[in-house]
Amino acid sequence: MKKMEEMMELLTEEIEGFHKSINKLEALSKNFKDLKIKADTSSIEYQIKDFTKEQRKVIEIFEEKTTGIEQKMKSARITPNWLATLFCITITIQVLSMSYFGYHFIHCENRNKAAFKRGQKQSNEIARRYFEDHPIIYEDYKKWTKKKDNVPNQK
Q: Residue 41: phi, psi to the nearest 5?
């Protein structure tokens, strides 16, 4: 019997503990029912606005740098200015020297032809005077040329 009584006491204690727990749960459930949870997104919105401001600043800096690079690329050259100037001067000097030498050789050929004609006239004049001074030699010369013209070509 003692055991039964002990079990009964334990059972009553457990029931009382269970009642207390239920009362506490009921009180807490009333608090939860009265509790109104508001969805506050202001901190998230603030963080998003702050992030978008930073992103705009980064994008502006990026655009400034890319426009600067684009301007530099448009004005960039493969060769420096002094090299282009040197190339133009060299080409000009070559064209002028080729023109001068071409002019010089053309006139040199003309001068050679004129000198040849002058020499031919002078030699003809000298030969004519010589033959006038020596008519006998002139007659022999005529005979020799006729004889030379009559010989067939022996090739």
A: -105, 10
